[in-house]
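Sequence decides. Our protein:
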Amino acid sequence: MSQRVTIPRELLPQDGRFGAGPSKVRSAQVEALSAAGRELLGTSHRQAPVKNLVGELREGLHSFFGAPEGYELILGVGGSTAFWDIASFCLVERKAQHLSFGEFGSKFAKATDKAPFLEASSILTSEAGTLPAPSAEAGVDAYAWPHNETSTGVAAPVRRVAGADDGALLLVDGTSAAGGLAVDVTETDAYYFGPQKNFASDGGLWLAMMSPAALQRAEKLAAQRWVPDFLQLTTAIENSRKNQTYNTPALATLITLNEQVRWLNGNGGMDFAAARTADSAGRVYAWAEAHDLAQPFVTDPAERSNVITTVDFAEEVDAAELAQTLRANGIVDVEPYRKLGRNQLRIATFTAIEPEDITALLNCIDHVLRH
């Protein structure tokens, strides 16, 4: 292998973190963590100081999402992966329908499909880089899909399924979308997410904005079905209303998450976040569309994500070597999702990432390609 290209320092972004998760963490979040070190870290999560932090976080997210009265922000330990099992036990009554158009939607679909106490799931699929449409189906009491497919860079509309049975819930995985894409949570019954993407914190926690219908479904199924204690949604609901979690949470995650929510709300909330990610993503797509050696992987502009961008390269470009060259120059985590197997880069445009750093990244890619 020939010696890798050295990118001139004046071309480099101020921050070289462009990973699809965990996200770049802003300096202000690290400073907030340091400031809280002597007061919160190493203290009980069931005492007032930490419970006040959780309470502020829940109120901040309620404001960010513009959630109406009756919707509640519920949280627990385990990440979005744990929430798939929680929803399988506690929100799907008989049968679920899933849209599976990438790695993460398919995983939730497998969870409900394998559950022995549920009917076989209806799973609607499409090729990677495209989006299937939901279809009302008699007997389905829960519809589910990701708002944003992290593996491919496809974003899906968030709206209820026309013609669905009365009482059917809509469960939307907002893990890589929440905090970066606009959403009307009243169109959902559980809009759930982790804090390690647009909210620029660490993983290991799940959060869900839940409707009164979802809260009632959880109570109903808790009385009918055995559920492991760790996965019992009513336990998480009861603890969240006390501004705590059933298990001990990572306080550093809560602190950095809360600081990001403060920053988002202080700058204009969801409108600010969605405009910022649209700016960044627009730079990537415009560059790729105009490039002789690159093109957007998602061909339909209406289906392209504004928080995860994916770019395919011509055969004469070794995208893996390109990513390694960028990494050697301090620009990290732009490799494609491993299971796609494409000659591709995946560039996150989360809210913590400066749009001007996106432009700098694109200039660096051009520099490497020229050399």
